[in-house]
From TrEMBL:
Pfam families: OsmC. InterPro entries: KH_dom-like_a/b, OsmC/Ohr_fam, OsmC/Ohrsf. This is OsmC family protein. PANTHER family: PROTEIN YHFA (PTHR34352:SF1).
Amino acid sequence: MKTRIKWIENVAFMAESGSGHAVVMDGAIEGGGKNLGPRPMEMLLMGMGGCSAYDVVHILRKGRENIEDVEVDITAERADSDPKVFTKIHMHFKVIGAGLTDRKVGRAVELSADKYCSASIMLGKTAEVTHSFEILAS
């Protein structure tokens, strides 16, 4: 896997993935940025959320569950001093579908957290990562 980061100006950078996609990362206006894109640490959380959501969808579909939507809300806390690593991360999954059970959705979230989501497992080395979920009927 490869990625390339190119400085644009001030504290703005263009990140290009090996698969040919690009995203702008920037700092806050008070930090010299123009707020053109997410902060790099926000990108880490977004990657973690995408990784976990992918797993949950994949696991539930593989189990032939009738899912219509999955959302993940993530809240995180960082250390007060440098390096300002994440210390706590909470992921809340909202799974929408018909006939879903707590057991099946809970198992999908657990498998993602403990076995499949590399991003979540990696961030869990420095942060306390917790999970919750709710099932919303379609």
